[in-house]
Amino acid sequence: MNRRWRPADLGAELRGLVPVWSRPAALRAVRATIVIPSLFALTFKVLHDPQMALFASFGGIGALVMTSFGGSWQDKAVAHLGLAVAGSVTLIIGTVASSPAWLAAIVTIPVGFLVYVAGSAGPNAASAVTATLLAFVLPVASAGGIATLPSRLAGWWLASAASTAAVLLLSPRPPGDRLRADAGALAVALAARLEGALRGAIGVGGQRDACEAAVRSAKKQLRDTFIATPYRPIGLAAADLGLASLVHLLEWCADHVIEATDGRLDLTVADSSDRTLLTMCARGLRDVASVLAGGQSGVDLRDIWSARLTSAEHLQRLSGESTSSSAADVAFHAQSVGIATGAALGDARIAARAATPADVAAERQRWQAGLPAAEASQAAGRPRLLKDLLQSARLVATDAPQRTVWFRNSARGAIALAAAVAVAKVTNVEHAFWVVLGTLSVLRTSAAATGTTALRALAGTIAGFVVGGALLVAIGTNPTALWIIYPCAVLVAAYTPGTAAFAVGQAAFTILVVVLFNLIVPAGWKVGLLRVEDVAIGCAVSLVVGFLFWPRGASGVVGDDLADAFRVGAGYLGDAVDWVLGDRERRPDRVVTAIASGAQLDDAIRGYLTEQGSKRLTKPDLWQLVMASTRLRLTAHSLASLPSRAAPHADDRRLHAELRQRAAELSHFYDAVATQIARPARRAAAPLPVEPPGGTSSDDTAPASAGEPDVLWVGLHLQSLAGHSAGISEPAERLALIRRRPWWR
Fold it and tell me: Is the residue at 64 inside a domain?
């Protein structure tokens, strides 16, 4: 929500102008200071090739300052090699298509779009987008034809080789993936709590509270890490999708483990089938942590599936016993933890790349679609090439629709770059690529964020021009003095990104540009003035494109995807209840649609969290809505993944009708939430609060204890879902209000 400016905000803004200490930033600055001036000296003073010097310098800036690849040394080497190849391709295209102006503008659209879309492959690919586009916009907006191509490529390759060597030699030992480590920590904490409850070793009072606090702390740490990741930790690759799904599964699993071990149920006297399932779940959760850390897994997903079937069969055999309610309660939590553990273990293997796509497809048929073994084997028998093609088609289809964040951002970016190239060519400015760089620097996912960044970019560029101009007035264009200042300018420009305000980084980069171009062609302070003018043009282009194309940014996509997830989940829940009660002949087939809607929602959330601006929900509200959609889908899946029961007894018909009514009320509630947060119609009235169905106590939600245990088990699923539904009405109302506000506010 917007808030009024306070005097204390001035102090915060001023503190942001001072860079903070950062060891990674310091290493980045040291690498850049060693490599970039050295390359410039080699190409300009020794080889006497200005084109090679220019592209070597900007290639070093792209590889060492604009990118930050993560992972192991091998991952970084592969990422830098990919950047070198991709940059070479875009450099060649940019050089060939640089003239005439109309050709340069037209070619920029597909090149920019493809580069932006390629960034959806994962965090390293996303980090390389700006540097790859730099290799394109520099030649496409500069003078010089195909004759300059050998020099330009040589400069780019020199920068790529030197930058890769510097990163590999001057990088700390990889600390490991924080998100994977936190996911593993939560899995271990859940396993320990389950094992303690099964042994009766959790105890009571303070000891149980300490165990629960450990789980909740690990759960909160994983959530905070997932939300705070600057680049979304997922992409279109199977490993990245598996990691994103794993985070949500562990969150859901933690809720059920806490409820099953809070002392209300005595797991030490539970049926052996349920104890076996929970014991296997504890082993599976420990294997999740092991697989994420690079180890092996000793638990087969088929064993968890078989244990779930055995537990369900035991529940169906019980009838009219005094322990029916307790048995149903234990079985409910055992099944919920079992489905979460099996799915989490499968996703952990995917995230760790410990399973081939063919293996993953076969396993997922068992624990995700809930098919019996014979059906799973039949599905797994499809030709691998066909399965790979289907997987690729699904990935493309997921990211291709106009509504996805990556599609919108890619289209906006490509159009903005093409417009900047056209304006720069038509106006015939002296350094046309600065116009495009200005557009590239300030374009964000929403018009409001773009406007804020543009003002900061202009302020920083003007400040850099003033400082750089004053410096040149003081020392003139003396080459010796400029050579002394140049490494210092590189050091500051490489350190400030991420450690100081955006305007400070722009100022430092402007000073670097002023010094660099005066070394190539001495022109004094006028170079800085030209950069201010060109950056202003680029910022104006970004603002216009931001206003014309999806000015709301990712917030609108998040609302649409949340609405879809709730609608699909509501329909899936109704089908699942009918199936498990024996009122439906065919197994629910909405699981694929539900999983796809969840993946698309997560994609939108990652873009939304990285978007700057004031029109956003708080992170707790956003997480609550996302987890509500996940809980709805997984509850339906838990019901739909087990065999259907026989036709109901005469005594159970009333309970069946009651359960169907409660399921319908829940489905109607989530449908109403979807309608509330969906894209509002023009002149739509303010959204009305959506109340959860009935009460949330066990008396209001669970069926009577006289019914069959498996009927009680269905009621417990609905009870758990209804108990969590009460908390999403207020976040949904706030999101609906935000969606009805004008985008410029």
Answer: yes
